[in-house]
Design goal:
nucleotide-binding; 3-stranded antiparallel beta sheet; alpha/beta; ATP-binding; transport
Length: 274
């Protein structure tokens, strides 16, 4: 299956600072923990954890397998309850968050357009408006020619583009992404990283992004948070030294290489006990 052409670069708005500064975080976790099971077989999976995400900020979280990264994201999405502590999302919408999963999470029996429109249908957006918004996002993601196709006929990268379009079509105040490119080959992963970078720099959607890839975190993030081995806690924070707007060309810089090495030194110490 040939990949569709990369969508055109979305121009970066020059008149607003990035990320916007606000005394009120979009997301705030305080003393957050999550335990699975019951004593004596309980598994302490997460925390205690402190986290804030500012409006318009793109925060990447890296950590060893099993450290609770996905658990954190599912609590933020309302799919899990914390065992103790709180996680608050400051929002003006009844449906503030959209989540993108590693396994796409799209419906095989719906067309591409119907998948992208799904969240709008749930919100009871009038069909004409919903189709127009879905078609707009299909165009942005280079999928217009596949609007009437079914997911089974698409490549993995195209399916993930459908998932991203579906999430952004509802105009979420918070975008939650759980290793969305992990199942893709290295070349396609790089392409989709760059596409996501273009989109999020244009829209300024507040994003919490879980990944195992240090390269991905540095390219995309305003901040990179490193989690410890289970139970996961935030043990380090780094701000990639690349101003916005940025492009994937930063991968070739000495600063990129140095930060990747520094993050790997931290992560390696946690991965061994994990």
């Amino acid at each position: 299956m040939p990949h569709p052409p990369r969508p055109p670069h979305q121009p970066y708005p020059p008149h607003r600072p990035y990320p916007p500064h606000s005394p009120h975080p979009k997301l705030k976790a305080h003393d957050l923990t999550r335990t699975f099971g019951r004593t004596p077989h309980a598994v302490h999976a997460l925390g205690p954890l402190e986290l804030t995400v500012a409006p318009g900020e793109f925060v990447c979280v890296v950590g060893p397998s099993g450290c609770g990264k996905s658990t954190l994201l599912r609590i933020a999405a309302g799919l899990l309850r914390p065992s103790t502590g709180t996680l608050e999302i400051r929002t003006s919408s009844r449906r503030p968050a959209a989540m993108i999963f590693q396994d796409y999470g799209i419906y095989d029996w719906k067309t591409v357009r119907a998948n992208v429109r799904f969240g709008l249908d749930i919100q009871r957006v009038p069909r004409r408006e919903a189709n127009a918004r879905a078609d707009d996002w299909l165009a942005r993601m280079g999928l217009s020619d596949f609007a009437d196709a079914y997911p089974a006929t698409l490549s993995g990268g195209m399916r993930q583009r459908v998932a991203i379009a579906r999430a952004l079509a509802v105009e979420p105040e918070l975008l939650l992404m759980d290793e969305p490119f992990a199942a893709l080959d290295a070349q396609l992963r790089t392409i989709l990283q760059d596409e996501l970078l273009d989109i999020t720099q244009s829209l300024r959607t507040t994003t919490l992004f879980i990944t195992h890839s240090l390269e991905e975190a540095i390219v995309l993030g305003d901040r990179v948070l490193v989690m410890s081995a289970r139970p996961g806690r935030i043990i380090a924070e780094h701000r990639p030294p690349f101003p916005r707007p940025r492009t994937g060309d930063i991968r070739a810089t000495p600063e990129f290489t140095a930060l990747r090495s520094e993050l790997w030194d931290l992560l390696r110490k946690e991965a061994v006990p994990a």
